[in-house]
Amino acid sequence: MLYKTVGIIGAGAWGTALAINIARGGTNVVLWSFDGECAHFDNVNMPDNLTVVQNPSDLADTDVWLLVTPASFVRETLHKFATVYNNQPIIICTKGADSKTHEFMSEVLTDVLPKCTDFGVLSGPQFAVEVAQGAPTGSTLAGTSQNVLTAGLQVLNLAHLDVTDDIIGTQIAGVGKNIIALISGYIHETVSSENERAMIFTLCCHEIIKVGLALGAKLETFTGLCGLGDLFLSATSPTSRNYSGGVAIAHNEKLQGTIEGIYAYETIVVRANKANCDTPTLEKIRAEIHKIIRKSAHYQDLFK
Q1: Where in the chain is CATH 3.40.50.720?
Q2: Superfamily of the domain at 5-165
Q3: What is the distance between the alpha carbons of residues 141 and 161, in angstroms, rounded to a whole number?
Q4: Which residues are catalytic?
Q5: Whole-prediction pTM value?
């Protein structure tokens, strides 16, 4: 099948960057925004074959959907689209977990759209602004069927795309890198010894992988673009919202934007406990971060 039109659900920085990049590659894009607005990037023009819409029904006849809303809004947003869903392959481009149910995004998707059998997960080292600017970008695409893999390979317009069937591992790698980036920013400010920082970083990575394996992930997934690649990007750069969020928490400062790592942290600990998987280092740092969060007026709304 030739996928001629992509429907993108979510017009934040990442959704808009994907829309621009896909349209730039020649595929028509319909970008849904809850308020009719989308992100804008300096010196980046919106392609003529990209249309911003506000009505979910405008995506009904598109050939493939990309889900790019923040994790906390995925369930609510999917309910809005359930009545216009027409068996399109769906690629989940959101890295995160449901903070109330502690489900990964693929589990939320199948809860809300049980008839969707062609779905995948896109994850990798991707700063939205660089994707919008056309910088070479590689990612991992995990899919349940050849349809969704074919759709991704046709439309995503990325410099390198690895494919796998490891849906759960690709998501845990994405969730895990948010947590590690948060921890990295936090310990950069609270731990003076570089040796100790390296030890904490490594032990936390080991525990994330251990949880992944306990939940059925493949080890090789964590060494790919969605694993090491994304970890290198997010856990070493102040540009990363999660890294900068960890720095802000260490100094009891207000957070800028949504810090997915805070909510993802809860999910990994809960899922680890359910799988009888020991994560002592993750839980120790989590307790430190929670002590600050619970006492600060800056963070009162985080877990409401």
Answers
A1: 5-165
A2: NAD(P)-binding Rossmann-like Domain (3.40.50.720)
A3: 7
A4: 177
A5: 0.94
